[in-house]
Amino acid sequence: MKYTLLLLMVLLVGCSQGNKNPKIIRLAYVMAPGGASHQGAEKFAELVKERSKGELLVRLYPNGILGNDRVLVEGLQLRATDMIITGTAMVGWYIPEYGVLEAPFVFRDYDHLDKVMKGEIGKEIIEALYSRRKIRVLSYLHRGPRYLTTTTKKVQNLSDLQGLKLRVPELPTYIKSWGAFGANPTPLAYTDMFMALKQGVVEGQENPLEVIYTSHLYETQQYIMETKHLLGFYMVAVGEAFSDKFTEAEQHIILQAVQEATSFNNEMVQQYELELRSELEKHGVEFIPVDKSEFENIAKQKLPLVFKEDWAENIYKRISSID
Description:
This protein is of the alpha/beta class. It folds into 2 domains: 22-143 and 232-280, D-Maltodextrin-Binding Protein, domain 2; 146-230 and 284-320, Bacterial extracellular solute-binding protein, family 7 (D-Maltodextrin-Binding Protein, domain 2). The chain is 49% helix and 18% strand. It has 14 helices and 11 strands. It has helices at 2-18, 36-51, 69-78, 89-94, 110-117, 120-133, 158-161, 172-180, 190-198, 209-214, 242-245, 248-282, 292-306, 315-320; strands at residues 23-29, 56-61, 83-86, 136-142, 146-150, 165-168, 184-187, 204-208, 223-230, 233-238, 286-288. Helix 2 links the parallel strand 1 and strand 2 (56-61). Helix 2 runs antiparallel to helix 12 (248-282).
């Protein structure tokens, strides 16, 4: 009798677990597994499962499986995804008056970046994205800073940069900004960059250490200048359907997990910087100190004029004035 009751209980528990239908949170991004952002996404999934007791499960779609950044952003509106991690290109597409976020020497350090994005300017950006595209930004993930690299020439000050044939992304902010510094910006697709550097079509490029390392740019670049000229970030965002699909209690769990995963990601970025620098030095690349004050002065003087018709009024000055 006892055995029969025990067996019945086991069967009932098994059936109960088997009948559970957890809600799935589809999280998509273009970054490949292995980086800080992917590890942050994994941490988010772990926290959501734990806090919801398995009633919410996060399904990750990394490496552009569901499309590029623009497709992912549009997927929020089409309900193809529930949440995305995307770069600041979204700002340029939908609220170009805040394109200053992609300009060099805007943020002094990550503390400054956080104060800007968590303050009044960040609030304006969040409201504008929601007003125009119904995109709701939940958090900002730090990315590694961008560095200038060259094939044979050390760039320690502004005069060393003059006329340098520099590969830049095919985006107006990059082209105009580096032109203002005196370089000869050459817009090229990312896929063409390695061969252009190897064949001498361009003399340098700029990217985070993760890209420099994973793309084997150390095979063509001798010097990495410690410009750290652009402190970028990813945006964690959801669409209008988010509040329809998830209850207030579920949203609370998700939002809390996003914030904790953000902190985890930001700590990982700092660790990655140290590890990647060490690995690149093993490949014979030399890190060069740079007098950034000259670049910062040019940025303050020229960029607001260059982008006067594009950026929100006094946006550069407003960001610079935040302590």
